[in-house]
Amino acid sequence: MSRVELSGITKRFGAFEAIRGIDLTVEDGEFAVFVGPSGCGKSTLLRLICGLEVPTEGRIRFDERDVRGVPPAGRRLAMVFQSYALYPHMSVAENMGFALRMAGVPKAERAVRVARAAETLQITRLLERRPKELSGGQRQRVAIGRAIVREPSLFLFDEPLSNLDAELRVEMRAELMELHRRLTTTMIYVTHDQIEAMTMADRIVVLRDGRIEQAGSPTTLYEQPANRFVASFIGSPRMNFLAARVTRVEPGRVTIDLPGLAGEPLRIAVAERHGLRIDDAVELGIRPEHLSLEPRAHRLQARISFSEYVGGAWHLHAGDHPAGRLVLRHAGTPIHAGQALELGIDVAACHLFAASGLRVSV
Amino acid sequence: MTTLMTRLRRYMDEHRFTLLDLPIWLVGMAVAFAWFAPFVWMVSTSLKYPEDVMTAQIEWLPSRITFDNYVKVFEYPVVRWAFNSLIQAGVATSLSVLFGAMAGYGLARMRFPGRDGLFALFLASLMIPTEVSIIPMLLGFIKMGWASSYQALILPSIGNVFAVYIFRQFFLGFPAEIEEAARVDGAGPFRLFFLIALPLARAPAIAAAVILFTLNWNNFLWPLLVTFDESMKTLPVGIAAFTPVVGTRTQLEGFSVAMAAVTILSVPSLALFFLLQRYFIQGISQGSIKS
Predict the structure, then answer these.
(1) With 60 as the cut, is the pLDDT of residue B265 above it?
(2) Every domain of chain B and the residues it spans
(3) Which CATH number describes the domain made up of B70-289?
(4) Is the Cβ of B173 closer than 8 Å to some Cβ of chain A?
(5) Residue B20: how many CB atoms within 10 A of its CB?
(6) pTM score, two decimals?
(7) What integer pLDDT is reported at residue A265 of this predicted model?
(8) Going residue by residue through chain A (362 aa), what tens digit of pLDDT does each one get?
(9) Structural contact between residues A112 and A128, judged by C-beta atoms closer than 8 angstroms
(10) CA pair distance B63, B47, nearest whole angstrom
């Protein structure tokens, strides 16, 4: 079991600041997912926790123990790499038992533990093979086996599924979640795939430019994104952002003017300290599933530029709306390019973002 | 003729060989012939009777064959010289491959101040001719009482810049994640090198070994200077006495015996090359392409 606490972590590579003062606690037994676009610092943060990099500033503690100066092997953790990083000249059994061999575990005990881990992952028949004789999925299993055989307190995964095909990725995702359920060990998982993050995480940590944008459960991030970046990063298709202007400010709510809006004016409930003034530029965020073809009090006129069938539903794209690009999830009859539609807005599910990018709606 | 043309065309198609490749191919063949002809001449002469060696007409292949020349070579302590050569070349090659791998790994994968400057210094040392350092080195070995010993034959050859270079180029392209995985698994720098990096460096190790073994096996000047006893001579030094100079064995036995001696000398290097040819080419190309 391991609780990981990061305090004021900064990492610089020369003049480049990859991680900027991160404070974060990953609780014991938690499945935390670091997610963000390329170059956001998620892998660097994982490598700092692992001990493969040393923080320029700040402190990392495992269960209250400061791990500064402790090499990776002394941190009781295991890491699964994106490329699997299996030793090509060793058999699967030797790969899995290598860490135990380094720790001086007797050969007989090594064999027992390797066999047990292999059985868990259903790779017993592969134990004598070399990595080059394995498929991508099998290699991934071996890499996970190499991690679990050490019985670590903390698992680190660095985009472990990114080299697998879509079907295998879904399968391995389920297996990893099952593994976490069974082992109840703290796991930190890095990915750029928000679907992976949403489906696997107890808590998602969204990173951008070396900073945490928001950390929270998948539902919190989806339903209450802290800012425009998180709102646009989480969710597929991504949230629609429509340019608007504040026309009236009242306690607890603001009225906005949205180009192309039909029906009643849009009134959005906002937080107490929203800081908005009349005539301020804002953005209205609407998830594709919160636009519909049903008649609503607030409607947008749109012409469909193209539609994508995604199995059981259509993603309808309207590129020429005056307030911005629109995507709508539609589960009814097929709608083809060129059709003009009136889209109903579910106002209660809308988000309002100030010009700073912060969400001001409640 | 038609069949021949059809087969030629099919061969060209299969090997993606076009007429534009022909000049390159012809130049390559000419160079290959220029390298191969003396070798054929050497082997051919070694199998000729002494009276067939000097003829008005060039005889590329002997009209009649004899192995007497080889028998005559073995009347001298060739086996002892070959043993000395084997010890000298084998040990020096093994150590220079090991040290070259260690230095190459350090220069490619470890971060320390002055690393690149050190590598430049290694390369710059290639510009110092052997003749400049060989006399002080000889005097040093004589003063230490190591003249005519295996230490004297081996020690000057255990560090080789070429080996360092070829391993450095290989390790520059070595996957960092494998190293990191080993660190996470608890391997320190030495175990990481000996258990992970070195076993994966088979191709550059073989390339370096083939080249260094050939260099060490054929090494002449240093063994000539440092060995004073007949029993400590290496094969190249021993058979130097067969060179066509007045007062040498060639004057007594003829060129054919000299050629038989040289043929014997070339066999181990050639055998090693042919056995390990595939890895040799792999190692050399890795060294050059991955840089």
Answers:
(1) yes
(2) 2-68, 70-289
(3) 1.10.3720.10
(4) no
(5) 7
(6) 0.82
(7) 85
(8) 589 999 999 999 999 999 999 999 999 999 999 999 999 999 999 999 999 999 999 999 999 899 999 999 999 999 999 989 999 999 999 999 999 999 999 999 999 999 999 998 889 999 999 999 999 889 999 999 999 999 999 999 999 998 888 888 888 899 899 999 998 999 999 999 988 999 999 999 999 999 999 999 999 999 999 999 999 999 989 999 999 999 999 988 999 999 888 888 899 999 888 789 999 999 999 999 999 888 888 888 888 999 898 888 889 998 877 878 899 998 888 888 888 888 899 999 999 999 999 999 98
(9) no
(10) 10
Q: What is the CA radius of gyration of chain B?
A: 24
Residues 195-214 of B with CB under 8 A from A: 196, 199-200
Contacts of A88 in chain B (CB under 8 A): 200
Q: Which helix (H) or strand (E) holds A65?
A: strand A65-66
State residue A298's pLDDT score.
Answer: 87
In the block, tokens 């699997």 appear at: A84
How far is residue A328's CA from residue A288's CA, in Å, rounded to a whole number?
4
Distance CA(A235)–CA(B89), nearest Å, equals 67
Residue in chain A closest to B175 (alpha carbons) equals A85
Asked if B185 and A83 come within 8 Å (Cβ–Cβ), the reply is: no
Query: What is the set of domains in chain A, with CATH numbers?
Result: 4-228 (3.40.50.300), 237-353 (2.40.50.140)
Residue from A81, A91, A94, A157 whose CB has the most chain B CBs within 10 Å, to mutate: A81
Residue among B177, B186, B196 minimizing CB distance to A81 = B177
The two three-digit tokens of residue A153, written as one number: 């307190």
Q: Could you tell me the CA-to-CA distances from A93 to A159, A179, B161, B256 in Å, in that order?
A: 23, 20, 38, 59
Distance CA A191, CA A157 (A): 9
Please check whether residue B111 touches A, CB under 8 A.
no
Q: In which residue are the tokens 């990099």 written?
A: A53
Nearest CA in chain B to A155: B184
Distance from CA of B107 to the nearest CA of A (A): 20
Residue of A54, A90, A98 to mutate when probing chain B, most B C-beta within 10 A: A98
Strand partners, A253: A250, A269
Report the residue from B178, B184, B199 with minimal CB separation from A73.
B184
Residue from B178, B179, B180, B185 to probe the interface with A (highest A Cβ count within 10 Å): B185
Half-sphere exposure of B180 (CA within 13 A, CB side): 20
Give residue ranges of A with CB < 8 Å to any B CB.
Answer: 50, 52, 71-73, 77-79, 81-83, 85-89, 98-99, 102-103, 146
Element (DSSP H or E) covering residue A144: helix A136-148
B184–A50 C-beta distance less than 8 A? yes
Q: What is the pLDDT of residue A261?
A: 85
